[in-house]
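Q: What would this complex look like in 3D?
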Amino acid sequence: MSAPNSSFDPVEVAALSPDDIASAVDSALIAIAEATDLDCLKETRLAHAGDRSPLALANREIGALPPAAKAEAGKRVGEARQRIKQALEARAVELEHERDQRVLLEESVDVTLPYDRRPAGARHPLTTITERVADVFTSMGWEVAEGPEVEAEWFNFDALNLPPDHPARTMQDTFFVGSEHSGVVLRTHTSPVQARTMLERPLPIYVICPGRVFRTDELDSTHTPVFHQVEGLVVDEGITMAHLKGTLDHFATAMFGPEARTRLRPSYFPFTEPSAELDLWFPGAKGGPRWIEWGGCGMVNPRVLQACGIDSDRYSGFAFGMGIERTLMFRHDVTDMRDMVEGDVRFTAAFGTDV
Amino acid sequence: MRAPVSWVREFADLPADVDGRRLAEALVSAGLEVEAVEVMGADVDGPVVVGRVVSVEELTEFKKPIRWCQVEVGAAHGHADTPGIRGIICGARNFAAGDLVPIALPGTVLPGDFRIASRETYGHVSDGMICSARELGLGDEHDGIIVLPADAGVPGDDAKPLLGIGDEVLDIAVTPDRGYALSIRGIAREAATAFGVAFVDPGLELVDLPAPEPGSEPHPCASDDLSACDLFTLRTITGFDPHAPTPSWMSSRLVASGMRSVSLAVDITNYVMLETGQPLHAFDLAKLRGPVRPRPAADGEALETLDHVARALSADDLVISDDTGAIGLAGVMGGLTSEIDDESTSIALEAAHFDSTKVARTCRRHKLSSEASRRYERGVDRVLAPYASARAVALLLQLGGGRYLGMTAVEAAHEPITVALPVGLPSRTAGLAVDAATVVGHLRAVGCSVDDSSEPLVVSPPTWRPDLTDPADLVEEVLRLVGYDAIPSTLPTAPAGFGLTEPQKARGRVGRALAGSGFVEVLSYPFVGDVELDALGLSTDDPRRAMLLLANPLSDEQPGMRTTLLPGLVAAARRNIGRGTTDLALYEVGSVSHLAPGQAPRGTTTPPRPAVTHRPSDDELAALDALLPTQRAHVAVLLCGLRDRAGWWGAGVASGWSDSVEAVRSVVAAVNRDLVVRPGEAPMPWHPGRCAELVVDGVVIGHAGELHPRVVEATGLPARSSMAEVDLDSIVQLARTVVSGPRVGTFPVAKEDIALVVESSVLASDVESALRSGAGDLLESLRLFDVYEGPQVGEGRKSLAFALRLRAPDRTLSVDEITAVREGALAAALAAVGASLRG
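A: Here is my prediction, written as structure tokens for the whole assembly.
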């Protein structure tokens, strides 16, 4: 490496001769053109444009020139280096393109290879549809109430205006715990949660009670002795059947789309008066939209309010309930109740983690 | 209740164009659940005509007696060679020359796609068929052919209307509050109201009966106690012809209504019951001894009912008795000793009003239900009895002859029932304006008398509506007639809520965590039995054997409520394996029941029963809850087969004990807690050397690990299957709801690996905690990344390799600091578990 030259003798700075510069450029351009891949080009770049390349060395000599010669020499060397730089860039683009065309193709894989190392898990659709129902109601400010599955007969029947010997008790084929006189049953509906809620929570009450219930039916394609219900209960001042209808219509559209709606038919339940059967206009029904029996509902019987210590002159309420299995069956076109019971992973896996 | 439309029309003046379907729609809107509209004999296609049997030739050369009959079928229907006459082969014997019978002509198709044709049989050409009720799809009767009444018509007439063929029948499911709808009377009333047409009440119009001859004595009745039977009547006739046939109009209606024709007297009691809703019972007068009286049965008293079942009675049963003892179960079924038969010429006809609760209890106790009891349980019109029995007597005299001897009766006085109804209550209940005139009009339409001169209205419900006792009951009557469709739809505004509770959210997270780890949820029935618990190897004194027992289990093999979720998962796994899915990761979240201290598997027999007229006291509520077992949510998992499948990426990985532990770790992580795993005493069904006791915050929450080989064998699960079961309620209680954010250091990390040699029995967790405590605050994380046992470390020893990450929050660690941490950790491991650095 030369130190800065103070003698100003142009003869001593041979590297700056136009011929030498031209020949350095020529040999660089040949080397660049001959580079066959990016690695080779990298070496060429080092040799012809690196710190030790002839032109880099020549560039350093410029400082040793007399001031009058500096400008011309600087221009000459600068132009030469620029030509090499451009040639390198152009060749790099060519070689990169070539690599993309050839090399990446060579190392491509079959992305259609199956990847099922660990099959996905799934939550039961009865769990997830219940969650969807809860989401509809909690978004309206309601809460989710729960109660025991093994339940006192008093909560399951007596408090709900179903005194002993009431014929409606035989409508619900009851599992008795211990003996028929033990006062303990497997709850036949989620309605005892309503009674517990009215006894325990401050007014007003806006809750749904989802849960598992039991009746002594044999398992077949449309019955199961263990199934799930969700009930809704509202107790507040000035509650009317119009509020019941509005709630059911909203629930129906949330579950079944904007075309869904509900219809009430007079019926009988001891714990509601007036009572109604609840039909759903199901837009997505197989074979076209139609009415489907969905559940039961009505205005909370004042006797039930009284049994729970609520002033029935001041407060009124409504309640509704439907089977979750049944809801799942028509919402998801499930045709056999046993599929929901048997735990076959092929059934449950189809629903994933949410419905 | 099956209601022939033609019968309904007798009392409701329905427009001619109202068919069964329209009637059904109107009744559904009014609150009667019409399940089906059927057409009687709907499958009969082609002519069925009236024929008169001209002659009967007995053919005796065959295995069974056969008749070759000449039947007059009218000029239009006869055979070409014998004008007006057809020859027909018939196997039945319940008819004679001169009888009118229904003839299905060749070409007619009967139910079951049975085509009638002229065909050669028993040596003759049979040119049609004489029909039984079953052959025409009119019922189950097949003991003989139908013989039409002598005045039914002339040969050649269309027999279908005579047989009720083509009549529409509504099948109505009657709810327990609507006892009155178990009658044509009640249904016709609703139909007339729905269509706004005239209604003739067949119930409260006393039929004119011939005045009894002077001096004739009707059979006496008596009662000492009117509390369970407040009205008892007995009408007596003699000289009745027990062989008089039931006219076809009556038998076809009985059949259409789902009953069998038995004999004229019995048919008439059934017919009048269907028409009015009043159950009736006919005694053979000749078999009665002394006054007929309703009374409580004596404990142990015996009665053989008409269904030939000998019944032991209790003092809670109400019976009808005479001097010989019980002769009937009141309101349910008559007794055999006083049954009318084909010799009975004198009849005592009972019509009464029994207490509905009393009848319901008797039915339950004797597991016996009848057309009568179904009506009494739901409430029979309190004053109907004498009207209905008068109607029945009139029919008996008209169709079977005889003389009426009069009626005896006992009756309790009645307090009139009135209900005060604020006239605005229907509006306030519906959220719809219903004016006073509409309220009063609808109440009167259902039979109430209404005093509308004051507010509130004073309403007297009709005698056939014992269900109308409260203002709310009257509101329903008004609103169902207004029509529920008129009620607007308004969403109520709830106060702002707080969404799901933390435990509810936590349970959702647990399920999602397991599903995210590849587990599939199952929901098993909670019923278990000893066989399943035996398979799990539970000893007889295992607390999980102390099950709550059901009085009426679905299966005697599974009489108990589960105390553990494991049997359900085993059953689900076996089912999946049986169906060809052998690599399984299952989970279940569900409730288990354990007997609370002092509770017996069969509970008590004297439970508290607080009054329902007011809120029970806190003590009463506590006593109710004390009846219940301890019910807790558990979560359990089962793994068998491969956890990770084999594939182009490499070999599969079999599931094992650690996967069951890992599942619980993910459950606990879902509530932001750390799981502590330690060896403990392994309960069954776990492998004693491969079972982990699982702890959160010092609380044992359950166990996980590989199944005991004996359990694997007994359950038929694959070897090395593993399970875990933990108390989800405990985990949820321990949930950390708010996680504090960590301070994320940005200075460089220092990574140090330490390989230690320890005795094989030393627990990895003990080595780890020693390293942690010795490393101090600069330790960011520590992870066991390798375990080695083999010749390099010597017999009875193992090497554990840990990766440590060290970092300070405020500086780059110096070499000296890093060395100090390493030395500290090693020293602690040496002191705690005798670990030495692997050379």
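A: To summarize the key features: Chain A has twelve helices and nine strands. Chain A touches chain B through 103 residues (CB under 8 Å).
Q: Very helpful, thank you.
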